[in-house]
Amino acid sequence: MGMMDKLKQMLKGHPDQAGKAVDKGGDYIDQRTQGKYSGHVDTAQDRLKDQFGRGDQGPGEPRQ
């Protein structure tokens, strides 16, 4: 079982916590790289949130 599979299994059913963790990790990377790769980081955050269950989606917001 790969690392992503283990993460998915642990975070299954907890999209809010997963979304917060992805945001925090992305903010850390942006800080360390001084925002140089912020576009790439944002794309990666969106893809991870999609895989983990979209933790930042409020009511009435469509999925992308």
UniProtKB/TrEMBL annotation:
Region (Disordered): 1-64
Bias (Basic and acidic residues) ranges: 1-30, 43-53
Descriptive protein name: Antitoxin
Originating organism: Streptomyces griseosporeus
